[in-house]
């Protein structure tokens, strides 16, 4: 018997029907060269990861505009448009050559970041969670099954704010491919079905304020639209 009410399981809608149960959210840092450069880094450094809690997700239905609250403690909330990979199976030490078969589907996501808090933690050599893992910090559109959209290895990834372009890249520009990312993640963690991977953001990250509307897209997956209030 639970001594407290159990929290509701975290799920995401699937394009075409059904729901996907979420276990963990892994995020890849600085995985596009131009974004790494704008953050003060160069070269193909070893991949590194951070995590968000599953309940940081803000699901947005297809064709609708989601609403996220401007978070507390920050004056510099940044958008980061990302391709999200959803796993249908996992394992340890998964070879890159076999990693694609672990992918169940994809979605358009936003890694919202309290940049001022993240930068302060970096200066002090402290963890980033306060900058990355807050409520509603991961808006996400419906999952599209890989059987429907195919394996995504290239295609435009973009974000506009109030109709003005901010971020633009191509999935082929990833420093570490999705398969390589799964390989590296599985060396550190036991991956499982229900895990999501935010795969990194292209250059052009910047601040949003209440009243702004973000519109992100990944070729083949449609559009994620989120208003800040």
UniProtKB/TrEMBL annotation:
Protein name: Putative isomerase/hydrolase
InterPro entries in UniProt: Fumarylacetoacetase-like_C, Fumarylacetoacetase_C_sf
Species assigned in the record: Rubrivivax gelatinosus (strain NBRC 100245 / IL144)
GO molecular function, a single term: acetylpyruvate hydrolase activity
Residue ranges occupied by any Fumarylacetoacetase-like C-terminal domain in the UniProt entry: 25-228
The keyword Metal-binding is annotated on this UniProt entry: yes
Pfam families referenced in this protein's UniProt entry, alphabetically: FAA_hydrolase (PF01557)
Lineage: Bacteria, Pseudomonadati, Pseudomonadota, Betaproteobacteria, Burkholderiales
Highest taxon of the lineage: Bacteria
Record keywords: Hydrolase, Isomerase, Metal-binding
